[in-house]
Prior knowledge:
Helices cover 61% and strands 11% of the residues. It is of the alpha+beta class. It folds into two domains: 3-111; 122-284, Reverse transcriptase/Diguanylate cyclase domain (Alpha-Beta Plaits, 2-Layer Sandwich).
Amino acid sequence: MDTHFFWFGNLMVLLGIALLAAATIKVTALLKRLPNRELHYHWQFLRVLILMFIFGYAGFSLLHWGNYHDGSSMIVPTIFFGGALFVLWVCTLSLRTTKVVQTVYHLQKEAITDPLMKIFNRRYLDRRLQEEVLICRTGNRPLTLMMLDIDHFKLVNDRYGHPVGDEVLKALGQLLMRHTRHADVVARYGGEEVVVLLPNTCGNEAHVLARRLHQEVAQLTVPLPELNRPPRPPLTFSVCIGVAGCNASNADANQLLAAADMALYQAKQNGRNRVECCPDLRLAANTS
Ligand SMILES: Nc1nc2c(ncn2[C@@H]2O[C@H](COP(=O)(O)OP(=O)(O)OP(=O)(O)O)[C@@H](O)[C@H]2O)c(=O)[nH]1
C-alpha cells in the first residue's frame, strides 16, 4: 500500500470534518446577530445539516480507513474536503456580510439620531419634512406639525444642574416616542425644542394629539438625585405646544415650521403650559 495515498486520503476527510466544525461555529455567531425569526429558522436548519454532514464524514472515515491505494480512490476524499471548504467559506462570508451591514445600519442610525434624547435629529427632520411636503402636495394628503418647548427649562438647569436637565430631555423624548405612531417623525429641533411631524393627519387629529401629549407630560416625573440630602419629590415640568398644518394648496416646509413656531410663541405669551394652534389650522390641514 502506498502510504502517501493512505495518509492523504484520511487527512482530507479529517480536515473536512474540522472545516465543517468551524462552519458551525460561524453559523452560531451569525445566529446571535440575526434579529429576524424566519432567517433564524433557516440558519438553524443549515447548522443541523452541517452537523449531519460531520457525522457522515466521520462514518465514511471509519469505514474507509486505509482504503486509499491509488489516485482514483482520492476522488471522494478530495470532494469531501472541497465541499467542507465551500461550506466554511459561505458561512464565513455570510457572517462578515452581516457584520458589515449591521455596522452600516448603526452608522446610518447614529447619523440621524440625537444622542441624548434618542429621537431623530434636525438633519433627518429637514429631509423628511421636504419629502412629506411633496407627498402632501402631490398626493393631496393633510400634513401637520407640532413644536414643543419645555417651560422654564433654564430654571431646571440652574436649580438642579445640567445632568437633571438632561434626564428631563431624555424622559420627554421617550414619552413622545411612546405616544406617537411609527409614521410620525419625532425630532430634536434645537436645545429643548422638539418637532413632531404628523404625515397624513388633519388639523383636528393633531390638536387632539397635542392636548393628549400636553397632559401626558404634566404627569411625567423625573427622579431627583439624593446626593446626601433628604429625599426630594420627583421633578415635574410642563410644555408649550404650537400646532400648524397645511394641505396640497399651501404646503411649504418653511411656512409650516414658521406657523408652528408662531403658535408656540403664542402659547408662551399666553402664560405657558398650554397648546395653541395656528389660527387657520382646520382650514390649512383639512381631511382630504
Ligand atoms: N441640560 C441641558 N440643557 C440644555 C440642553 N440644550 C439646551 N439646554 C438649555 O435649555 C435652556 C433654554 O433656555 P431658554 O431658551 O431661556 O428657555 P426656557 O428657560 O425654557 O424659557 P421658556 O422657553 O421661555 O419657558 C438653556 O438654559 C440651555 O442651556 C441640553 O442638551 N441639556
